C-alpha cells in the first residue's frame, strides 16, 4: 500500500444555517479544501461522500462542476464520514489514483433522530417500546457501564464541561459558550443519567478533505500529514451496540475494540504514542466508554482522568479538542470528517486557543455509528 497524505481541508460551520441546503454547505467545504490544497475541482480523480438526510452526496457535482469523475455514495450511520475517508484512502493507497476528495454534509430537521426499526432488521415492537430513540438507548447502556465500573454523574458532567470550554476557541463549533459543571449537572434530565447538556444535537454542516499520493503531495508542497492507518469494523458476537435487541450474558467484543486494534497494528504504534484524539461523543457517556474501548485507559479509570483534567487541551491526552459532537452538534455525514479536520488542524499548529501544546505529531480519530460500526484513523506529521 502506498502512502497517502491529506493535502487540503475545508469546513462549513456546524449548527443551523437557514437558507442553505446541506448540499451547498458541503460544496462550500469542498471549495475551501480545494483552495487549501492549491488545486481545482477538475483535478479530482474521484470522490467519496456521505449524507444521511440532505440527499445523495454525489449530487454535489451539480454545485462543483460536471467533470465526469467517479463518485461513490457512502451511508454508514454516524460512521458515514469516517467510512468515506477510508474509501478515499484506499483509492489512493492502492496506487490507482493520485488525488481525490472525501466529502460529508448534512442538514437534519430539528428534534431527535427518527430511525425506523425495519431499516435495521428489527420488528415494529422494538420501536413501539421506545428503543429506537437513541437518547434512551444510550442512557440504558451507560447506566450499566456506570454500575459495573464506578463512573459518577460528576464525571459525565466534566466531559460536557470540557467540550464547551474547548469549543469556545473553535470557529466551526455550534455551542461556543462555556458551561460550568453545576449548570450541566442541574440542567433538565433527558434520559437518566444524562442531562440536557450531556447530549449532542442533530445539526447541519459540511467537511471536505483532499487526499493525495506521496508523489502528488510533494508536487503540491503539502506532504506534511500522512494517514498512517485507517480501519473500520462491524460488531462481533456478544457485542452490545446501538439498536441491539438483546444482550449476551457474557459480553463479547465490540467493533471499536476491533477497529482500534487493527489501526494500531497497521500504524505500528500504541495508545501511549498518540498526542491528540477525537473520540465519538454522541453523549458524555460515549466519550467515557470509548476512552477505554480505544485503549487509552482501563474501564473505570475515567474517573481519575476527568477529575485530574488529563483529557483537557493541556492534559496527558487531549480529547475532542474542538468540543466534539457535544459542542459542534452532529450532522451525520460530516461528523467523522470533522474529527479528521480537527486533527489535521492540530498537527499543523493551526488550533489557536485550542491548540495542543508540545508540537503534536500523532493524532487519532474514532467514529461510531448504528447499528454497531466503528472507524479509526491515525495521522502522523
TrEMBL record:
Thiolase N-terminal domain boundaries: 5-179
List the Pfam families.
Thiolase_C_1, Thiolase_N
One of the record's GO molecular function terms? acetyl-CoA C-acyltransferase activity
Which residues belong to any copy of the Thiolase C-terminal domain?
259-377
Against InterPro entries, the record matches this protein to: Thiolase (IPR002155), Thiolase-like (IPR016039), Thiolase_C_2 (IPR055140), Thiolase_N (IPR020616)
Q: Which residues lie in coiled coils? A: none
Name the UniProt record assigns to this protein: Thiolase family protein
Please give the organism.
Answer: Sphingobium algorifonticola
